[in-house]
Records
---
Amino acid sequence: MLDQAALIIKKCHGLPLAISAIGGFLANKPKTATEWRKVNDRIRAELDMNPELRSIKTVLMRSYDGLPYHLKSAFLYMSIFPEDYKIKRKRLIRRWIAEGYCRGMHGMSAEEVGDRYFEELLDRSMILLLEEDTKYGGAIDSCQLHDIIREICILKAREENLAFTLEEGCCLSDAQGTIRHLAIGSNWKRDKDVLVESMLDLSHVRSLTVFGEWKPFFISDKMRFLRVLDLGDTFGLRDRHLDQIGQLLHLKYLSIRGCYDICCLPSCLGMKSEAPPNSGW
């Protein structure tokens, strides 16, 4: 039971409101490892269904509602990253720029604007600082989403048809209408029919992010407006799989960092890409 308690506290990341509310909720539950495991596995659903935990969602929703419009889009975009995922600052900002979420203004470059967005989200405690990844001089290299805030992020992103993740246990009916940002989780069963047989509306997908194993059928002819293709650290990706990427006329960002089986980029790729760090590119 102590193991389950530690996992639940980890999800709270020191957020007093979350610790207090979930502690009070568990006080009325049978004190067994099985019962606490259920709570840990179902925190997302519990936020919606249980009045005792609904106060957490209400307060966090107010934090989200209080964000300026430009920060709301930048924040919801982060729902594509898995739980406890270390999000590299530069990677995130470059993606924001490619998506058009931040542009140069008032004498500032797009990257400087993205840096300011990042700092604002950090100051508002919408993202967590990873102290072990703080560079010399205090520069922040990576961040994470607080687990419970991430649940809010996912809920709002789905409500607005902004992002959808294909993962174990996902419900395709949750993807109502068009999807702008599609992520493929490492635990998804790689069901070809979902993408090839048009079980999802892919006609307006602007970004595709893959975690885990790569499959060639992930890119559909229907993804005509794809701007971001992030394949960083995927496995199974080969040089020949990149040939079809040249058909993505709107592509602004390509990441194949950590894909060590890639030896060369096809000549048709003219956009800025992130190549494997040890490739010599």
---
Amino acid sequence: MRGSSALLGESGHCIHVGDRESDIYELFRTAHDLGTHFLVRTCVDRPAGDGQHTIDAEMRNGRVKGLHRVELRDANGARLVVDLELRYQRMTVLPPIGKQSRYPALQLWVIHARERNAPGTRAPIECRLITDLPVSSRAQAVEKLDWYSMRWKIETFHQILRSGCKAEEARLRAADRLAKLISVLCILSWRIFWLTMVSRAVPQAPPEAAFTKTEIELLNCLVQESAHTARAPPLVRNVFKLGQLGGYLARASDPPPGNTVMWRGMRRLTDIQLGYERAMKRSG
């Protein structure tokens, strides 16, 4: 937090978004001292107000201030549309009991979003956030939820960069060479991540929006269509085929291919394409 705030130069324009591992009172206090901001998913039910109750108890007594409809997929890849009840309010958050002599209380905003009328077959969708940024309207609460939802995409991108492109295994000694390599790998990582998501967001888009003509021809030659993939739109069909090169089974009950099979498939397709183009030059 100190490093990023110093690098940016304008700490007030910096917002640190963290998962439950960041639910640390020292982090809240550090952000306050630096004049920067944070948005964290909470896992600790901290004492609040006069210390005689907790954050959860105070939020339970608050009224629902709005609804927010979201679309997502369940564990099997099926599409879900759920309505989240929004509760948000400003409150005094106290440090842990053992640290109250070292840290003062903070005035923070708490957001609780919980699924309305959740089915009994699964746990309700729920998200609890804490921030030092103002949340005085439904629009501001939804904005903070949207910011937090972007964290997963950023983590997925870095997972592809580390595990798929093996960025951490580079043995370059010069910093400038390592920076150039990472720049190239970032482009590759982003393409894999984008291919994974674009077929879910806009499945009716033409395959040429995501694949070159040569890639489409090779995928059609290498991967035999099943009854399941044949019914899919052209873009989704090619994404399935790329995933199949990486080990995706493409069964009717399978969720859409994930990043792991996509980067494996892209690695195989790139090698095959290099051999194909070299062979075409020799024969042409």
